[in-house]
Write a structure and sequence with these properties.
By secondary structure, the protein is of the alpha/beta class. It is built from 9 helices and 7 strands; from the N terminus they run βαβαβαβαβααβαααβ. α2 links the parallel β2 and β3. It has a single domain, classed as NAD(P)-binding Rossmann-like Domain (Rossmann fold), CATH 3.40.50. The longest helix has 29 residues. It is globular, with a radius of gyration of 17 Å. The structure holds NADP nicotinamide-adenine-dinucleotide phosphate. NADP nicotinamide-adenine-dinucleotide phosphate (NAP) binds next to α1 and α7. NADP nicotinamide-adenine-dinucleotide phosphate binds next to α1 and α7.
């Protein structure tokens, strides 16, 4: 590609999203990274330097998505690569799960996908090029006690991905999901030591994954070379689960 493509990464303040933003920047994209706070957005701007910037965006809020996307388009250009990475957990056994815990996970992990994709697909259709990459999780396939809300949300991410891929394929827009296993981030830092040991015993390569390893996969799916892969969920879990 001769001109710089703008890539948008939600939840780029830390963890997997930060690694994806850094990797896409290194690959030559102009990168818009988002956080939920101004301090987070400022830190992203500082990290990305002159070819990227941080923006405040709450994927659970319609007005926030619209406003942030308009500012990003005006400042960096309409993004033709969009990585829906923002995601949360609110773990609880179903019997104890509060409606707020269910709703927060659905509004962020699934609703966020709907809101952001609806805003970004039109410019991609006009450009006749686009890459949408959605973060799922191995939990969508394996299930996990205490995470029924999270598992349901990530199952929805994968189903959404397959449907949108069918809608947009004729415009050379691909839509894929990436389903990480257990990656070393703040999300997995909450796992206790005993649980971590049990977990490691079930992972073929015997370790947690690194955010940079997920970023490398996302970077490939964003590339022009990946144009014949769409509607897929690509697993990256060190052999914890064979999809
Ligand atoms: N870590 C893993 O092992 C693992 C495994 C499988 C799948 N995943 C998926 O990978 C993605 C990233 O995970 P992670 O471990 O890197 O997460 P993380 O370290 O907890 O970071 C979450 C990111 O999402 C942002 N975010 C949270 N709520 C948001 C909202 N309403 N609107 C916009 N952004 C929001 C956060 O922004 P702030 O900093 O502003 O809060 C932060 O940048 C998630 O979708 C997660 O489900 C992770």
């Amino acid at each position: 590609m001769t001109t710089k493509v703008t890539a948008l990464v939600t939840g780029a303040s830390r963890g997997i999203g930060a690694a994806i933003a850094d990797s896409l920047l290194e690959a030559g994209y102009r990168v818009a990274g988002t956080a939920t706070s101004q301090a987070g957005a400022d830190a992203i701007s500082e990290r990305l330097g002159s070819e990227g910037a941080g923006f405040v965006l709450d994927v659970a809020d319609d007005a926030s998505v619209t406003a942030a996307c308009d500012v990003i388009a005006a400042g960096l250009g309409e993004p033709l690569v969009v990585v829906n990475n923002a995601g949360i957990t609110r773990d609880n056994l179903l019997l104890r799960m509060k409606p707020e815990e269910w709703d927060a996970v659905m509004q962020t992990n699934v609703g966020g996908l709907y809101r952001l994709c609806r805003r970004v697909v039109r410019p991609m259709m006009k450009a006749r090029f686009g890459r949408i990459i959605n973060l799922s999780s191995v939990i969508a396939r394996m299930g996990n006690g205490g995470q029924s809300n999270y598992a349901a949300s990530k199952g929805a991410v994968e189903a959404f991905t397959r449907s949108l891929a069918q809608e947009l394929g004729s415009r050379s827009i691909t839509v894929n999901a990436v389903a990480p296993g257990f990656i070393e981030t703040e999300m997995t830092a909450k796992i206790g030591e005993a649980q971590r040991d049990a977990l490691l015993a079930g992972i073929a390569v015997g370790r947690l994954g690194q955010a940079q390893e997920v970023a490398a996969l996302v970077r490939f799916l964003a590339s022009e070379e990946a144009g014949y892969i769409t509607g897929e969920t690509i697993h990256i879990n060190g052999g914890l689960y064979f999809g």
